[in-house]
Amino acid sequence: MISFTVNGRPAAVAVPDAKPLLDTLRDDLGLTGAKECCGKGECGSCTVLMDGEPVCACLVFTAQARGVEIITVEGIGGGPEQLDPIQAAFVAEGAAQCGYCTPGFIVAARALLDKNPHPTAAEIRRGLAGNLCRCTGYQKILQAVAKAAEGRAD
Amino acid sequence: MLLSEMKVVAPGSLTEALRWLEEHQDRARPLAGATDAMVRVKEGQWRSPIWVEIRRLPELQRMDQADGWVTVGAAVTYGRLLRSELMAQTAPLLAAAARDVGSVQIQAMGTLGGNLGTASPAGDTIPPLFALEAEVGLCSRGGGERWVPVESFFLGPGRTVRRPDELITAVRFAPQAPGERWKWQKLGLRGAQAISMVSLALRLQPGFARVAFGAVGPTVLRARKCEAWLSQAEAFDLATVRSIAQMAWKEVAPISDVRASAAYRQQMACALLERGLREVLAV
Ligand SMILES: Cc1cc2nc3c(=O)[nH]c(=O)nc-3n(C[C@H](O)[C@H](O)[C@H](O)COP(=O)(O)OP(=O)(O)OC[C@H]3O[C@@H](n4cnc5c(N)ncnc54)[C@H](O)[C@@H]3O)c2cc1C
Ligand code: FES
Ligand code: FES
C-alpha cells in the first residue's frame, strides 16, 4: 500500500510503485480534475501541488508520493458556491474555452500566488510558462490571474 | 521489464541507499525528481527492476559554504537553487542556469544530481559547473567518498565515470569572485520547456577567463583557445571581441539533430560568445 494525503484526506492505494501519480489519482482515487495531455511534463495539464509545490503528476512515480500532501484542483476552493478567487476570476474573465487545460492553470496559478501574492505581469508569465493552452491565446488566462492577484474577483 | 514490475525502495539514510546500490549493482538505479526517469520509462527505456528513492535523503540536501568551498547536495532542486541567497552570492551563474530549466513544475522536482546523472550534453547546469571548475562528489559503501573534476566526470552522452554502486552526493566549487563578470545564455526553440540548442557559461576577471559551451559536442566542453586569448587581451574593443568569438567555431564539435544542424550550432556558439562578451564588457 502507498499512503499519502489528498485534498486533506488520507488515501491508501495498492498500485504498482512506478504507476504515474496522475493515473493513480484519476483511476484509483476518482479525481479526474487533473488531465493527461502530453504525458511527459511539457504541457502542465496534470499539475497538482505536492507538499505545496506545483508538479506534473504525469512524471511522478506513485511511490514518490508516499507520505506527502497532494492538492488537486478538486481541493482548491470550496465547490461552486465558494470558488477560489482564481477560479472566480477565470469565470469572470472567460479564461476557459474547451477547459482541458484549466485545472492545470488553476493549480499552477494557486502555487504562484501562494508564494508571491502580488506578482508582476512578467512573473505571472514565468509562473505559468509550463502550462499550454490550445484555445484561448493566453490573454484572458493572464488577465484572470492578474485579477485574482488583486483580490477583486467577483 | 513491465512498468508494473518495477519496484521503488525508499531508504531512510544515505548508508541504506548505498547498500541497495551495492547489493543490486546494475539492477538498481537512483531515483531523484523522476523528470528524466519517468519520460524514459514511458519510452520503454531505463526499465530498472529497482529504483532507489533519494529525493528526500537529508544527506543530499545541503547548500553551504566552508573552507573555500561552496557545496550543493545532489538532491537540491532547481527551485531551491534559484531561490537561495547563498547561490545568488556565490554562484549566480549556476542560479541563472537553474532559472532557465523547464518550467516551475520541472524546477520543483528536477535536481542537480539528476542533471549530472542523465549526462546530456544539453544539461543546463553543466556548462556553469565546467566554468566553475566544480568537483563531483561520489560515494559508495565500499569505496567511501571521492571527488572528481566535472570535466573528467562525463565520458559521452549519457555516460559518466560513476560506478553502479555509487551515488552522486554533491558538487563543490570555489565561489565566484564578487566583482567578476559572468553571463549565462541559452538558445532554445522557445523560452520555457526548451532543450538547449547551444548554451554558454562565461566568466571573466582580469587575467582569467572561463568559457564553457553546452550542446555542441558529446559532452559539455571548454573553449580553451578563447579562454587563453581572453585572459591575455590587454584591452577589449569590438574587433578583438569579434575575433575571439569567431575562434569558438573551431573549438566546438556539434552534431546535427532534430533541434538544429551542426553548422547552425557552430555559428550560434560564436554568436552567443560575441553577444555575451559585448554585454559583460560593454563594447
Ligand atoms: C518538460 C521537461 C523540460 C526539461 N527542461 C530541461 C531544461 O531546460 N534543461 C535541462 O538541463 N534539463 C531539462 N529537463 C531534464 C530534467 O528535468 C533534468 O535533467 C533534471 O535535472 C533531472 O533531475 P531529476 O532529479 O528529475 O532526475 P531523475 O529523473 O530522478 O534521474 C535522472 C538520472 O540521474 C540518475 N540520478 C539521479 N540522482 C542521482 C544521484 N544523486 N546519483 C547518481 N545518479 C543519480 C538517475 O538514476 C537517472 O539515471 C527537462 C525535463 C522535462 C520533462
Ligand atoms: S500531461 Fe503532464 S505535463 Fe502534459
Ligand atoms: S481552453 Fe482549451 S486548451 Fe486551454
Write a brief structural summary.
The complex is a heterodimer of chains A (154) and B (283). Chain A is built from 5 helices and 5 strands; from the N terminus they run ββαβββαααα.
Q: Strands, helices and their partners?
A:
The complex is a heterodimer of chains A (154) and B (283).
Chain A: E1 2-6, E2 9-13, H1 21-28, E3 47-50, E4 53-56, E5 69-71, H2 85-93, H3 102-115, H4 121-127, H5 139-150
Parallel strand pairs in A: 1-5
Antiparallel strand pairs in A: 1-2, 3-4, 3-5
Chain B: E1 7-9, H1 14-24, E2 28-31, H2 37-42, E3 50-53, E4 63-66, E5 69-73, H3 78-83, H4 85-90, H5 92-99, H6 104-109, H7 112-118, H8 126-131, E6 135-140, E7 144-149, H9 150-153, E8 154-156, E9 159-160, E10 167-173, E11 181-187, E12 198-205, E13 208-214, E14 221-222, H10 224-232, H11 238-251, H12 262-281
Parallel strand pairs in B: 1-3, 2-3
Antiparallel strand pairs in B: 4-5, 5-10, 6-7, 6-10, 8-9, 11-12, 12-13, 13-14
The complex binds flavin-adenine dinucleotide and FE2/S2 (inorganic) cluster (FES) (2 copies).
Q: Summarize the amount of helix of chain B as a percent range.
A: 25-40%
Class of the largest domain in chain B in CATH? Answer: Alpha Beta
> Which descriptor suits the 3D outline of chain B?
globular
CATH topology of the largest domain in chain A: Ubiquitin-like (UB roll)
From the structure provided, what is the oligomeric state, counting identical versus distinct chains? heterodimer
Helices and strands of chain B, in N-to-C order? EHEHEEEHHHHHHEEHEEEEEEEHHH
Count all strands of chain A and give the number: 5
Structural class of chain A: alpha+beta
**Radius of gyration of chain B in whole Å, from Cα?**
19 Å
Taking strands numbered 1, 2, ... along the chain, how are they ordered across the largest sheet of chain A?
2-1-5-3-4
Strand content of chain A: 5-15%
Which stretches of chain B are low in confidence, meaning pLDDT under 50 for 5 or more residues running?
A: none
CATH homologous superfamily placement of the largest domain in chain A: Beta-grasp domain
Overall pLDDT of chain A:
96
Coarse shape of chain A = globular
